[in-house]
Structures
1.
Amino acid sequence: MEFLSQTYVALRGPTGAPQTPLETVTRLSDRLSPATLLADRRAAVLSLKGIARSHKQIVGEHALPGLLDIIQNDAEVDPDIGRAALECVHTLCDTLDTQYNLRDLGFVHTDRILENERTIHKLLALLADQDYHIRQCSCVLLTTILHNRAQQAQVYFLKAPVGPGPVVALLEESGDVITRDALRLLAALIRQSTEIQKILAFDGVFEKLFNIVTREGGLDAREHVEDALKCVDTLLRFNTSNQSYLRETGLPSLLCSLLYFNPNVQPDEGVPQEFALQFWNDSKTKCAALVLEAIGMLLGSKGTGLREGYAFTRLLIEMALASNAPTRLKVQCLRLLPANAAAMLPDMILTPYMPVPETNGEEWDRLEAATGIDALLELIMHGEYNGLDATRRFKEGMDLRGTAVAVFENFLREDRVKEAIVSGMLPPENSGLHARSPVTPLLFGLILPPSSPLDRANVVSFQFAAVLFAHLIRHAPQCKALARAIMPPSLAPMPPSGAAPSGGAFFVPADGGQAPPAEAEPEDQDEPQTLLQLLTEHLSLSFLSRSRAGLSEREQRECDRVICSYLSLLSQWLWEDPKAVREFLEAGGLGVLVEQLNQPSEVDVVIPGLCAFVLGLCYEFNREPGEITRETIHPILTRLGVDVLVGRMNRVRDDERIKVVGPDFWVLPCPTPQALNPTFIPMYENETEVWFDWAFVDFWKSNNYTVQRGLVADPNSASSSTVQSGEESVLVASLRDIIAKQAAEIEALQAKLKELSASSSTAAAVTTSSFDEERKALEASLEAERTKRSEVEKEQEDLLVLLDELSSKRARDKAAMREKGMDVSEDEGDDDEEEEE
Amino acid sequence: MAGISWHYVLKFIITGDAAVGKSSLLVRLTDQRFLANPDPTLGVEFGSKLITIPEENKIVKLQCWDTAGTESFRSITRSYYRGAAGCLLVYDVTSRQSFQNARSWLADVRAHADPHLTCILVGNKVDLCTDDAARRQVSTEEAELWAQEEGLLFVEASAKSGVNVEDAFERACRDILEKIRKGVFDDDRSPGVKLSKPANSSLALDQAKGGSGQCCGT
Ligand SMILES: Nc1nc2c(ncn2[C@@H]2O[C@H](COP(=O)(O)OP(=O)(O)OP(=O)(O)O)[C@@H](O)[C@H]2O)c(=O)[nH]1
Ligand SMILES: [Mg+2]
């Protein structure tokens, strides 16, 4: 009560006359001096605290130094005054005020506090104070200061005589409030300061953080766990030193345990259901995502022999392919999977699960065990849970399939793996002329005829099948040769015995969609078609259905998508494969392309551009004797107009569907590009779509130029000079650029010279000599430019010769190597093709 | 967890002038490599190594914090002294200056570290003196004498040839283990020494806590 009357006196003044706030604050500030009795000082601080928010500026201006002194000298002695001073200063530094100018005052006051290290060091010491409130208020004030002016405060922190110990100790305290505040302080402290992150690791912060996580009950807990794991994330993210520290402790195994995964799991051991089937909610998902990130960082950190390496990899694979984890966690698992882990997939036995319908995710069916690679392929081809939700094309689901493709690509690192897979798609040996290939899920996805109307789930399956198959054969002559011998079975109502796709699931989409069209190939059944012929025919069919009247815009886009997939797969297959080119042309491919190019779409630039690309590519690589020769194609090119074709190809580059694709980004929002038709409405919210994968875009970008150059070549010109790898053609193009620039410079110099000599003759009398000099100089520089140019030209020639020599040497070497039975790497000459790559 | 993989975790710091070869010593210890052109350390870098002390039948996990010798980092690196159980104080035998500066490094360590900290003085780059004795600027005797006066262990080593590198760390470890045996460290009291617990038991989750879905396997 004494304090109230004191305040009253202070506010009213001894005479009872009302005071201005300034007078009050000045008066109160005066009382902060050590000369005043402690009780009076305490009363003054409490009063100041009471008005600090409403008179932030005046209080800050007059009382801040006094308050800081009190924190410095009195807080330890008298917790009440200490707490009030800390809270008052906190109000002054607060920058969360809604009023703009008040917010600025918070920064001003923070800067005043940070004029020297005194207060920061004191606050750090107070974190270890006896009194709980002093600890807590210091913690909160420090956090606010760090939020306002991190850098300066962090510098002071690093020099603090008490060291980081009190911060770490605070994390050991139990109690919701203090734990929350300590975690906030920690988060503010470690932001963007590697040094602080390291010193805290040294002082055991990781151990304390994981103690909080376990103390609170793991990922299912409601409080603090996410904050603690976020700190772990920051401590590790860009800090290799901390990564090596953590991987050497016992903590990594805890990351497994947090997800109910056995850190000592052996390759021949199964994974308990407790891990595979968990209850998931939003907050647990967020926490699990952070645990997965930590696992990923440890797996990627430098150093050898991470004890948990196998368990981590296994955990990521199991969670992605055989669990009920939320889809976005599965995407994350696959993204974090190290490239070399893909090799483990064939030997790993997984037990995938399916939700039991109508149980709201509470009951799950265990499916038959499958190898990791089968489960991965199944996921790519059909989508999560056997295509349960595939028609929706929701973002996470599509991302999951896209990321799975990247894992599959890692699996294909070695040529022999690709060859083995393609070989598995061939008809059994010695089984006669009419032998057909076994229907693998991949092959089945590829040869599904374009039905009308198109089935949404099947379209995506086909797109992914095309992407996978392209990965198998791109720049792999051996695989291309094998692939030409694939004889797909006709999709008759009864698949040939023993030829059902594994699991058979693909026939019955879980969304209750119809079984795949039962009609057989319109062809003669006795004459088996190759895969390439079949794809050519399906391309033609797709164009046909695209041209049908009355298609909705949505249907048109579906058609376009399928067509794009055919064209991109075919272009990657036909590239540098004259035999495949011949087969494609003779199967009617030429007609299809020419027809499209004759009457290209007005709106869409991609399909005509790709048609031109494939046509150019066929011309370039049509090097096998056959019905349709380069001479046959040449007049067609002339009639279509080479310039027109080149123009079409170039326009593809600017299309959003190509432009935005990156190595990890090819699942696009629907519709892309949005501008194509602003009235287009996707069927589902957050629907996504796929057009091209990065591998194709990359392929297309590096070879577009070569194809364009090939178009202008004479039918009789050998391909040896034209076939260059993407890099080489880029190099040549840049050399050309230099030459062109220099030619222009020379021209300019010549013009100037002429001008000068003209003017010099008229003004001859005056300054002949100086003109002469200038002229000489110009002539000299012209000469220099000329030699430079010829040098560059020579250089280019030499380079081309060198390239030629290199390529033929390489071809010879590889042939010799192959003779000796050595493995020969990809991207070299076809088995019977003598030229260079 | 299959058994205990180490008995003690000991925190070490490595300190001394810039370019005397602190990082090189650590890399030699952990990776058995020598880098001709390492970057100067910024702040601190962590490295660790398991060391077996056969006489004591103990496996020790060394956690080493290699600090920057550059003056501007000194206030940061000081924070690490407090928590360390052992210290490698390094100078370069071909640099008189670095030996003289070792005094001020030692003073710093004494001012901030646990009083029971074990410190070993390491004269690095002896390989340079075997070919060309004239390059030596600090004699073995002089350094040894100073070490004795200050109560430091002492060894001459080379991160390049690898000679005595592991030995330096081992000697320091033995000394600490002996102090532990004598009860100098009250186990958990000194922040630099930790008795190992089986990594899992202390932190393992109560497996029963999280719910798992039912399954009607088919
Ligand atoms: N000949 C020889 N050179 C060494 C030896 N140890 C280190 N060096 C070289 O000395 C230079 C400095 O080595 P660092 O290990 O970076 O020195 P540092 O003490 O860590 O330096 P800071 O991190 O800046 O404090 C490098 O060029 C090393 O190659 C050694 O034993 N013999
Ligand atoms: Mg260094």
Note: DSSP finds 37 helices and six strands in chain A.
2.
Amino acid sequence: MSAPEAPTARESPIVKIAWGLILLLVGVAILGPWLSPHDPNLGDFSKIMVGPSSENWLGTDNLGRDTLSRLMVGTRIAALAGLEATAIAIAVGVPIGITVGFLGGALDRLVMRVVDAVAAIPALVFAIAIIAAIGGGLTQAMIAVGLAFSASVARLARGLTLSERERLYVDGARVVGLGRSSLLLRHILPNIGGPLVVIATTVFAQAIVTEAGLSFIGLGVEIPDASWGSMLTNAQRVHRDNPFQSVPPGVAIFITVLAINIVGDSLLRRRRGESFDHPAGHLEPVIARSKDVDAPIVDPIAQPMTNLDRTAAGADWAGGASRVLTVRSLSVNYPTTTAVLSADFHVDEGEVVALVGESGSGKTSAVMAVAALLTPPADVRAAELSLATPSGDMSLLDMSRSEQRRWRSQLGVVFQEPAASLNPLQTVGRQMADALKRVGGMSRREISDRTIELLTAVGLPRPAEVARLRPDQISGGMAQRVVIAQALASEPRLLIADEPTTALDVTIQAEIITLLKQLGEQRGLAVLLVTHDLGVAAELADRTLVMYQGRVVERAPMAGLVTAPQHPYASELLLSVPRNVGGVRIEPKIDRSASLAVPTAGCVYAPRCEHATPECREREPVLRNVRSHLVACIHAEELDLPAIPVEPSAFEPGGER
Amino acid sequence: MTRTVLIRVASLVPLVILASFITFSLLQLTETDPAIVRLGDDATEEAYESFREQIGVNDTFVVQYGRWLGNAATGDLGESWNGPNQVSQLLKERLSVTFSLALGGLFVAATIGMVLGIAAGVRAGRATDSVITAAASTGQAIPNFWVGILLVAFVALPYDVFPATAYTGPTESVKDWLISITLPSIALGTAAAAAIARQTRAAFVRVLHEPYIRTALSVGLSRRSILYRTALRNASIPVVTSAATLFGVLLGGAVIVEAVFAYPGLGSLVLEAIQNGDLPVVLGFVFVAAVGVALVQLLLDITYTVIDPRTRVS
Ligand code: SF4
């Protein structure tokens, strides 16, 4: 990943053309003097300022010199100028940047002050000052340009070194006892090499333009040498009679800079690896498509689905509570991975259903699909994805983006990072008002009253004051309360909470859990909760679905799961929750070093499962009824899995995972 | 607000002083003898020496810089080596041209660049976006002084609307001043507008990937309101932040573009000074450029605190 790779087949044709042009220019720069059709410095006074002809393809200048030949020779000067200036900028800037970035401290502050001061002078102005000090001429001019650009190179090199050093620190390489200088050479240099190449292309392009500019005003190349800039000076003298003379040198500069920029951009894109292939971001979420119910995920040999559901869901499900959300055969695919595979779940009024699993298990993808907030390249398909609303059932499947707004207004979403979930530039009150306006039919007075009411409902003391604050002025816990209040603005029947407590302090976590519980009970909300933390799930949920690698591996009433997990992974998750037993905190002892690769056949959990048999690696288990849980494990009946024989309240929310 | 401004000023002043110190030190490298610059080759050694003594170049470096800085603080940038003129007077006569062009260029760049960048940003991923992005990448590569040359050759000379060489100061006639800076501002602003358009569009795309956009969508804000209220304001922050640097680039560009139009700006003054070895003028030129950039930076910082309340000091 470090060196600039040659153009690959994946590059767009424009990038290939740009590479081709650069190769052509390099060729002309090397061979120009031999290739040029005429002597670039020898004028023919019988042919002064003639237009393009078969003899002089681009015409001649005011001294009868062939423009094409001068252009070709100028290519070499431009290339040399660019190389010299870039080499100097890199040779001066990079060591300074790396050294101060690595050593830090007072030296860093001092040097960066100087660098900032140099950067405060426009590069061209600084270059002119250097020329005034060391004299004119092409080499001096390029030293000047190189030095002028070295300040910004130093700044960038320092930034790269800092982030690289940070990363090393995290990786613990320092602890292993590598000496400082060897650390510098072995780790930092190769890793910042790539970004530096990108910087170099920028400097190179700027240096070529600057050389032309300085030569144009007479501070660069000396007459009669042909530089693209000095050719323009000449051309300008004969403006009135022969305007065409100004075109070829400018086109040469333009094409060269353009080609370098295109290549530089493509290198940058490849480095960043930022997938802004879908530039509309969150603004254009994917449309969930309908599909048929998948092949049996529930074992056909077992009892029919509905009965199973009833048993697994526990008594109150069958008690006639009204269904709010129904999801059948939900799959979320990304180009290279499957995030969710054929998940079935539902949430009833007043019920809290938790999706639990470690990160990467697909739980967030599943609920974001329900919220219609997944962005491309996610591909969402389901057999059913419907909400019961006061005006009848609504289906998300195949709903257009504009209609999706209607769907979203039926549910509220609470996100993982409360601070990042609020617009940093607007006050809380303003954002609440925006959410309430959407609901409609309220006067300004009513909106502000309702804002206060909602902020009070989420337990914010002095709500009027909070409404006047911006997200950066409130704590994470308060921000999460605001997000919850916003989610309640449209009085939804379903609340989706994606890791609502993960980013918060332990004490705040407990408060938010209590709040969600209260809100659920008071408002009869259906809650779909996502958490990696079984402690949190145990506090809140009535039922739970355990997910692993995109599959639902166990589905059970919360109490049942906690006391008698039927799937080995559920048991592992339970044992990984830190607990308080008689006031003593028991830390989990789980070895998670086992392979995380998804097997191509058999049970997905097999690589990590201590009960795995050869059969597990061949046959994929499907969900079936085992002791009133739905379990996807071939050996579920035979296993006697460890659980924690205590009340959920003994869990301590906020375990380390 | 006043506090915020004062704090900004307090951070910009040392920067400008340090910049002047660096330039001052740099110019010590020269072997130019001010006495020869002023008195020519054929004066007596006593005359040379008394001139050196008079302008203080025999003092130590620290004393010389201290004196220069002290005078600079009062607006006195010393005397030209080449004649009895005050550097500040010389610069003052030329400032208007170069700064007019740079500001004109910034205006052209900001208006065209923002409009195009926003147009691309709000239609991110669609055809408009692709066309604007491609045009901006291309436009960014056009050298500004070449645009100037083409404008002179193909607009100013053939048609009698814009002057090719006559600069009018804003104090003489605002209308003529505007006419005289139009073409140079376009020349300067073209590539810069392309850069701003790209930057604005990139900032937009980045913002559209932020979690708060997802929240806005989830609470039911309309596409319009998300784009023009939430995203636009957030996306303008990095663009405004980098505009001061861009102004510096344009100021450097103006030195060359004014030569294209043969306007009597700082460029021709400093070129003459370089030829004559008149270093106080060069130093003054750098100082004035750094102060100009710092002032624009200050203005932008103030704008910035209006857009982004987080940066306000309370
Ligand atoms: S099917 Fe086998 S590997 Fe999978 S969880 Fe059950 S026992 Fe473990």
Note: Chain A touches chain B through 83 residues (CB under 8 Å).
